[in-house]
Amino acid sequence: MPRPNRPIYLDNQATTPVDPRVLAAMRPWWEANFANPHSVEHAMGRAAEEAVEAARAEIAELIGAEAREIILTSGATEANNLAIKGAARFAAGQDSPRRRVVTLATEHKCVLESVRDLAAEGFEPVVLPVRPDGLADLEALRAALDERTLLVSVMAVNNETGVVQDLAAIGALAKAAGAIFHTDAAQGAGRVPLDVEAIGADLLSLSGHKIYGPKGIGALYVRRRPRVRLAPLFSGGGQERGLRSGTLPAPLVVGFGEAARIAAIEGPLDAGRIREQRDLLFGALARAVPGLRLNGHAERRVPGNLNLTFPGGIDAQALMRAVPDLCVSTGSACSSAAIEPSYVLRALGISEAEARATLRIGIGRFTSPADADQAAALLAEAWHALARAEQ
Predict the structure, then answer these.
(1) Catalytic residue flag (residue 334)
(2) Domain 20-262 has what CATH class?
(3) How far is CA 315 from the centre of its chain?
(4) pLDDT tens per residue across span 232-290
(5) φ and ψ at residue 248, rounded to 5 degrees
(6) Fewer CB within 10 Å of terminal CB in the chain, N or C?
């Protein structure tokens, strides 16, 4: 079939394109007013500060929080580190007997590594398996929680499979054990409804570039009542309630705020449109490639994610090379440079050979029906060509 006149971008779990409205909102803060938002002694600094605080309120609104509960960070990786290590180190400083930190085997690398790093500081990391559909085993989680548990960290939406966890149930279990509940909601914000009160979250991480905002900006929700106490990761001027020192990048914060505002208003509309493109692509591809398998729970998943194992042992890397005009991935962007089977898929009980034959397709706000149609046709054509070559 003819090649598209531009690459078809279907890697929206790795990052989303910046919405043009977000770019427009950011531009004045690069050009007309470039002031430091902490320079409140003069008019330009005060204007920048006001813009930052307005954006903070929009970010809070997206998750049902108060603006003063939002700590701005460089992204979700920093927010996750601050949540997990910050909570643990504060507790250690108070001689708390709670030393157990519980998470799931399918969490993002930055959560797993943060939890494991705490072992060197005298904490007990507990990494629980998940069910074959990717959902948390709530009974196994209940059994892991007791009076020694300090923190439970479970992501809202998995970045590889798109599976949506039952955060309200997990939060209730954590609260019953007297533990802090943290969720990495980078993949969930704007894709599924999130309310910190409804899910019982004490800490929640966000990322601007997952919701059509800029890269380099994120946030950590930190509950005020009852107050969750954290130790900062690094020292400095004491910005962000003393938890995250450093000059705030006003243009990025404004962009994040605008992206959050749009997501809060248009999220349900986006979800319906994205689901249509997903069903179009998956239906066409499944008809053309017998034996194609969807990984993760079929219903409890975000609309834009397709994690697909191709039959016949066709290597996913070879499949991607055969469709250079299609932007998809084999898994998490932070580890895709290392050509190894996805640890998330292995945690679902998927074999190494099948994991190597798996692609992640991420449909987003700007994916058109023509994109979905063409992507399915390109992948099917490439798979058949590779399968013939294997015979």
Answers:
(1) yes
(2) alpha beta
(3) 26
(4) 999 999 999 999 999 999 999 999 999 999 999 999 999 999 999 999 999 999 999 99
(5) -75, 135
(6) C
Domain 8-17+267-390 has CATH 3.90.1150.10: yes
Q: Which is catalytic among the residues 334, 339, 353, 385?
A: 334
Q: pTM for the full model?
A: 0.96
The ranges assigned to domains in the chain are 8-17+267-390, 20-262
Residue in the structure block whose two tokens are 């007791």: 146
Q: How confident is the model at residue 339 (pLDDT cuts 50, 70, 90)?
A: low
Tell me the pLDDT band of 123, cut-offs 50, 70 and 90.
very high
Sort strands 149-153 and 326-327 into parallel, antiparallel or unpaired: unpaired
**Rounded to an integer, what distance in angstroms lies between the CA atom of residue 179 and that of residue 234?**
25
